[in-house]
Amino acid sequence: MKAKIYAAALLSLLMATSCNDFLDEQKPQGVLDEEQVLNPAYIDNLIISAYAIWITSEDINSSFSMWNYDVRSDDAYKGGSGPDDGGVFHNLEISQGIQTEAWNISDMWQRLYNCISRANTALQVLDMMDASSYPLLETRKAEMRFLRAHGHFLLKRLYKNIPFIIDENLSQDGYNNLKNNTYTNDEGWQLIIDDFEFAYNNLPVKQASVGRPSQAAAAAYLAKTYLYKAYRQDNPESHQVTSINQEDLNMVVKYSDPTIYTAAGFHLDTDLHNNFRPEPQYENGPESIWAMQYSFNDGTPEGNCNWSYGLILPAIPGVTDGGCDFYKPTQNLVNAFKTDENGLPYLDDFNSKDYDMANDYADPRLFLTVGMPGTPYMFNKNYIIDHTATWSRSNGTYGYYITLKQNVDPDTEYNIRGGLWWGNPMNLIVLRYADIMLMRAEALAQLGQNLPEVLEIINSLRTRANQSLAMISDYEREYGVRMKVKTYQPGGYSAMDLLKMVKFERRLEMAMESQRFFDLVRWGEAAQVLNKYYVEETDDCPIYSAASFTADKNEYLPIPFSQISASNGNYVQNIGNW
To answer: Which of 42, 125, 176, 317 has its CA 20 to 30 Å from the CA of residue 20?
Structure first.
């Protein structure tokens, strides 16, 4: 059993919007006993509840990993049995027919604001306490503001123009009068930064519980948020990048300083795959700066498992019956892993022909990211992927590739059946050190500074890729694949050359981790890249024959119709003629 702060008892904790369990029976309904409210045990329960909702509030259709929404990128097909299976996500996949009334547009909005509500409820009570009675006051405030900022960050990447609930003591009238266009895009990012800066200044270097964010986690999120903020999209009539702000990039460099992370014991793991293993000895490893903590065998029938990946498993007869085969890697992504005779990627023409396993060289990370026909599923030789319906519920419409980073070996205790669905206890890493390294390299390349360090970062990841062979060391001999990945030779690269290399390396390293679509939007490249992808991918996945990405519309989800209707005219719809 994992020793994590998310114990089984979390499921029975009070909801953030209700304090009825703590009311004095002799008092009028809704009146709190101050002595009870200020009891440290009470506030600890509220704080744990604010963490727990990140596990209990998501589900298979609204994963806080955002895999359901990454199907808009060139990394992933929606998958399933066909376009009508999860049709609202098919609409996202082809950037057509997206409706403001669709449940997947409003559901994530509601779930994330529920998470923010929990953090604010805890902050309300923390604001009434003093350090003499509650010594961890500033630390716990920092944790709650970190969680609040995390929720706002995810919302802003999805919807862009959102209301910010940054005053935990807001009155009911204040809530009723919130607007979603009070702040410019730049100002909105700054509000999120303010919460993360408070967290950075008040969190310890190390936490006793692995699920609580540390100072390094706040630094990592500051680097990430400043990087999004740097690509300015402040024209209210456009989603295009109008400028790239150097001051923001300098802050990315500041908060991605390796000394922040090495001092706390964070660094690249020796093998990429270790980040995606459910065994306790691998979870919360040296690369996991902050992760959602899932568990099993913790006293509840099904544990606090990660059920949000329940749609991703293939349907292996008699083994994972009920697997739905969603979130399938694209041919375009597989092609990106090809390498030349020198072990380097084809930066400009990687998609000129499809990857041929028997003849082409490939970066080893391909086989840790994508289950390929002719190789074992989850490195278990009992299950060899092939071109049959077992590995494609759509009978090939979405191809036969399988995502590996979210799944576990079906023959282990970590593959858990709960009702109709399968879950596993593998953590979801929110902030991974490799991500921070790539953000630092991107900022430096954009600034034109310390270019040798940019190349060093890229090469360190490629070196690690070459060493990530524990699970695939016999693939060349047993399955006929050809693996080759080498580092770039030093010298002769311009800042723009290095920026292109960083962006490509980011795609390979972070593939199928639900970052790709948001990266394309952040860079201002979504329309160009995705419309090209739709044309080129149609032969491999015919659903794209009807796809078309509309710039200044499809970069963000529309504001849900239900939210606009309930806002008394305070919310405005995103641009794009929704």
So the answer is: 176
The beta strands (E) that lie in 330-441 are given as: 338-339, 361-362, 370-371, 376-377, 380-384, 402-403, 416-418, 421-423, 428-432
**Residues in the chain, overall count:** 578
The structure's pTM equals 0.94
Residue with tokens 């990946």: 309
Q: Decide: 183 and 241 in contact? Cβ < 8 Å.
A: no
Listed in sequence order, the DSSP H helices in 164-280 are 172-176, 185-202, 215-230, 246-255, 258-262
Identify the sign of the CA torsion 494, 500, 503, 504.
negative
CB 76 within 8 A of CB 330: yes
Cβ count within 10 A of residue 495: 15
The alpha carbon dihedral of 157, 261, 143, 145 has a sign of negative
CA distance 284 to 269: 11
Q: Give the pLDDT band (50/70/90) at residue 42.
A: confident
Q: Each residue of 284-294: pLDDT tens digit? A: 999 999 999 99
Q: Which residues pair with 299 in a beta bridge?
A: none
In whole angstroms, how far apart are CA 106 and each of 53, 88, 385, 488, 497?
18, 12, 36, 45, 41
State yes or no: pLDDT of 1 exceeds 70: no
Q: Chain centroid to CA 538: how far?
A: 27
Identify the band that residue 68 occupies on the pLDDT scale cut at 50, 70 and 90: very high
The count of other CB atoms within 10 Å of the CB of residue 445 is 28
174 C-beta neighbours (distance < 10 Å), count: 11
Tokens of 431: 């902030």
Judge whether 163 and 156 are in contact, CB under 8 Å. no
Residues 6 or more apart whose CB falls under 8 angstroms from that of 250 comprise 443, 447
pLDDT average, residue stretch 499-513: 98
Burial 524-548 (b: 16+ CB within 10 A, else e): bebbebbbebbebbeebbebbeebe
